[in-house]
Amino acid sequence: MRISDRKMHPILKNQVIKTLAQTLADFKDPKDVEVFLKDFFNESELETFAKRLAVAYWLRKKRSYSNIRENLKVSSATIAVIQNLSKTPGFALAMKQVEAEEWANVWAERIKKFIRQ
Fold first, then answer.
1. Which domain holds residue 8?
2. What pLDDT is recorded for position 41?
3. SS3 for 7?
4. pTM for the predicted model, two decimal places
5. What pLDDT tens digit does each residue of the chain (117 aa) get?
6. What is the model's pLDDT at position 2?
7. Number of structural domains, the chain?
8. Which residues make Cβ contacts (< 8 Å) with residue 27, sequence separation at least 6?
9. Class of residue 72 by CB neighbours under 10 A (exposed 0-12, middle 13-18, buried 19+)
10. Could you tell me if residue 49 is inside a domain?
11. 29 domain-assigned
């Protein structure tokens, strides 16, 4: 039996999830988060979660199902599931963070070019 097949008491489950969330929130350096995630999840688990975020991001960028399917090696069914999940508050928060980081990177490059002139 796998760990995930055994159900925890809902109150304990909520506390455990909050502890994981707080642990992630307490990291100050994204590199530390990456080290933690690579140690905490096996390669397949980490790739699954990363692909979910990438699918949601690419759907938001209006990429086609076929493009996403080919590049990320996911099924159309997975893309459809993520498309539905992308309407939830958690995914909206994640996309806001990804887009803020993307915006910051674009402007950082523009400023660097301006300063070099």
1. 3-88
2. 94
3. coil
4. 0.76
5. 466 678 899 999 999 999 999 999 999 999 999 999 999 999 999 999 999 999 999 999 999 999 999 999 999 999 999 999 988 999 999 999 999 988 888 888 888 777 876
6. 60
7. 1
8. 33, 36
9. middle
10. yes
11. yes
In a domain, 96, yes or no: no
As a whole number of angstroms, the distance between CA 37 and CA 78 comes to 22
The answer to whether 95 and 56 are in contact (CB under 8 A) is yes
Q: What CATH number does the domain containing 11 carry?
A: 1.10.1270.10
User: Can you read off the two tokens belonging to residue 66?
Assistant: 């076929």
Cβ(58)–Cβ(91) under 8 Å? no
- Say if residues 79 and 55 touch (Cβ distance below 8 Å): yes
Any domain includes 30: yes
Residue written as token pair 């991001």? 57
Q: Which alpha helices (DSSP H) does 1-117 contain, by range?
A: 10-26, 30-40, 43-60, 65-72, 76-85, 89-116
Distance between terminal CA atoms of the chain?
63
